[in-house]
Task: inverse folding
């Protein structure tokens, strides 16, 4: 998922889009090494050091990764359990994001 | 001096008799339980050794077929021990062994005509003979992931009749988790009929149909009532994954009362990033947010 996320962030640079993680790792120091190695530049909330943390509990997350797509008004528009794994799924995933970004640009232009 | 010697002799004279009675006495239920456990562990050890020594995939499959100690083969003997000694503490241990997740398979409800599984039998015996036992906390905790009527009957009985608060608390939490699971599935099935179809295979047609028809609000209420009870009666019992049950119940109640649903506003997230700097989800209003619950494992 990291390579796709990296390209997503790059492709939508300057657009009304942001990728935010909720990280459920246990060790921050270890995690910092991963951020560096995988070139993860986007920001993540810290879930408190485990999968039972307050944020994932509030969002009732049952499996990792789980992704939510939230529109510019703050409304949840999609939920994806697990990352896409076929090119076709990636295409659909990107299309949903692009649709909402276009929506946000249209509203901003008004 | 004479006295000591005679006492010693008397003891010696007794010894053979003691040995003889040892042999004829049947072992205690505890000893029987330990012997069964030992037998299983030994078989498991032999299997593991043979498996790690197997060279090819074919050999490994053969070892698995021939040596893997199927828990269901030993389960009837644990059950027999429990049936014959309903008052012994070891009976509870034996039944817990049968129900524990690594030893039992939950058969779907559609398999009605099949004979009862050892697991189902064990749950029924626990309900009949051992609802008051102080040894049921771990079992109850594991039943939070189960979804059979027998487990629910046992959990309800433990919640109402057991006198040990940590055990009752685990039963209450497990019932709440089962209710939550039903709610989750009911919502997913409504959104995705294909998913419902796929679940029929291992949940059984009837159970799936019931959830498809169920009212999510009612299911949510059921889970809320159970978490309410935890918050009220068991708040200071330690939770399985750290912290106190009261805190877990509070978080769960918030999540149940304001569920995360597609089409609804996202709740605020206020927290800190990996470096400890505070920030909020609402900082990004006006932008599309892809929220990724991730972990590097």
Result:
């Amino acid at each position: 998922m990291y390579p796709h996320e990296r390209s997503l962030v790059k492709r939508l640079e300057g657009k009304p889009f942001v990728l935010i993680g909720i990280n459920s790792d246990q060790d921050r120091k270890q995690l910092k090494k991963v951020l560096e190695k995988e070139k993860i530049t986007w920001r993540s909330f810290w879930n408190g050091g485990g999968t039972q943390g307050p944020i994932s509990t509030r969002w009732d997350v049952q499996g990792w990764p789980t992704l939510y797509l939230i529109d510019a008004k703050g409304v949840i528009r999609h939920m994806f359990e697990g990352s896409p794994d076929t090119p076709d799924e990636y295409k659909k995933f990107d299309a949903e994001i692009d649709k909402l970004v276009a929506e946000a640009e249209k509203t901003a232009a008004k | 001096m004479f006295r000591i010697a005679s006492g010693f002799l008397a003891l010696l004279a007794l010894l053979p008799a003691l040995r003889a009675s040892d042999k004829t006495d049947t072992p205690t239920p505890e000893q029987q339980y330990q012997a069964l456990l030992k037998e299983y562990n030994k078989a498991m050890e032999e299997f593991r050794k043979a498996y790690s020594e197997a060279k090819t995939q074919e050999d490994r499959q053969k070892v698995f077929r021939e040596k893997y100690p199927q828990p269901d083969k030993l389960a009837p003997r644990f059950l027999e021990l429990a049936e014959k000694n309903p008052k012994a503490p070891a009976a509870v241990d034996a039944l817990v062994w049968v129900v524990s997740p690594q030893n039992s398979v939950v058969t779907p409800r559609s398999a009605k005509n099949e004979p009862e599984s050892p697991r189902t039998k064990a749950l029924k015996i626990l309900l009949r003979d051992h609802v008051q036992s102080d040894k049921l906390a771990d079992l109850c905790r594991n039943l939070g992931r189960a979804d059979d009527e027998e487990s629910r009957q046992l959990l309800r009985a433990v919640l109402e009749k057991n006198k040990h608060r940590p055990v009752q608390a685990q039963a209450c939490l497990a019932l709440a988790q089962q209710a939550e699971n039903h709610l989750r599935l009911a919502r997913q099935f409504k959104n995705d009929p294909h998913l419902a179809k796929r679940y029929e295979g291992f949940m059984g047609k009837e159970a799936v149909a019931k959830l498809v028809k169920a009212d999510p609000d009612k299911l949510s209420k059921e889970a809320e009532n159970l978490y309410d009870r935890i918050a009220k009666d068991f708040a200071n019992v330690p939770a399985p994954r750290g912290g106190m049950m009261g805190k877990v119940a509070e978080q769960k109640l918030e999540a149940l009362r304001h569920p995360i649903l597609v089409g609804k506003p996202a709740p605020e997230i206020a927290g800190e990033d990996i470096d400890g700097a505070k920030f909020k989800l609402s900082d990004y209003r006006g932008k599309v947010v892809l929220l990724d619950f991730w972990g590097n494992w």
